Amino acid sequence: MKITCRPVLCLSPPHKNHYQSSVVAQMSPVQFQIMSDLHLETPSARPSYQHFKIQPECQYLALLGDIGKVLDYELIAFLEDQLRVFEIVFFVQGNHEAYGTKVKAAVATMLDFQRRMDEYREEGVKMGRFLFLNRMRFDITDSLTVLGCTLFSHINEEQRQSVSLFCSDFSETLEWDIDAHNASHLEDLTWLNAQVEQITRDEPRRKIVVFTHFSPTMLSAANDPKKLEDSNQVRSAFVTDLSDQICWTSSSVRLWAFGHTHYNCDSVEEGTGKRIVANQKGYKRSEVDTFDMAKVVEIETTEL
């Protein structure tokens, strides 16, 4: 059966990483201002962290990876600025965050930042909550859950050589190769499937929002046609087809937003009714023209 998507109009103006929001059950919609691939580390001669200003359109901001490099102090300052104006900042680590260091070191840096922000809040500093979605579940209401992870792609055997040649991740990231990349993909996918399966089985009325950096779909509506042709044989470094995985097929998943491809989309998959969203800016001086800083996605909630 061929799965298709219909376009959507944009709306603008128990695990160790399982958190419960203080928000009570509600009937009102939940809104997320979603963006990724800001690449504020570019251009390298004059990074753009201080020049990119986000105007809040709702209370929750989702930054879905490749925002900058964790080695840049300016990234931390940028995130602190967002916490002064948003109630929650959801953050997914992309592949560029770890450039110049190790992936695990980048994760440790962001976990430490989350801890320090929590401490500031406990001390009475008025700022939003920072949630590092590193295989994290967060119950934002009594009927809506956010699941998030990087979801590294699975690089297939036929493309190992071309991916190694054309993709800079394996030269810019310390102690990182295709085997490590694929192992992380499996860990992320196993965790995500387990979370979705458990919620679908035990809490069938709960809705799920999934935030990842890498793309989970080969649907034409969500991919650049040139990338689907894949003349350079590198597609598996960007996209993994999860159409047969429960994290994709479960009707509990109402929204999946991602980045990494530098191709924007907003459509609803027929069959599951899942909304598929990407809102990516791209590198400085080569921005994606469909990027919308004010893009807000709304999810209806119901009382359990």
Automatic annotation (TrEMBL):
Signal peptide: none annotated. It holds the Pfam family Metallophos. GO terms for molecular function: hydrolase activity. Residues 34-263 form the Calcineurin-like phosphoesterase domain. SUPFAM superfamilies: Metallo-dependent phosphatases. This is Calcineurin-like phosphoesterase domain-containing protein. The lineage of its organism: Eukaryota, Fungi, Dikarya, Ascomycota, Pezizomycotina.
